[in-house]
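#onboarding

Welcome to the new folks! Below is a worked example of what a typical request in this channel looks like: someone posts a single protein sequence, and someone else replies with the predicted structure as tokens. Don't worry about understanding the tokens yet, we'll cover that in week two.

Example request:
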Amino acid sequence: MNQQFPTYLSLDDVLLIPNQSSIDSRSLVDLSWELCGHKLTAPIIAINMDSVTSTEMALSMGKNGSFGILPRFDTPEIQAKKVSQVKAAGF
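Example response:
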């Protein structure tokens, strides 16, 4: 059986070589992106670990143009409470 598998890369497979840029200033770069109709201005996502993303962290990420993924191992009741808190803040 001859199967073709897609190629996947990890961080260990990629090497970035420093070089001169044609961009005059970092302020000229637009880092914004769109996700489900929401424009985000920071290319950072807080991961869904309970030691990383609390409700406060998710709110702070939202206020700064990104988002945080709430922990998945919380009980459904705790998840619902956290989502309600984030939604009540306008996110």
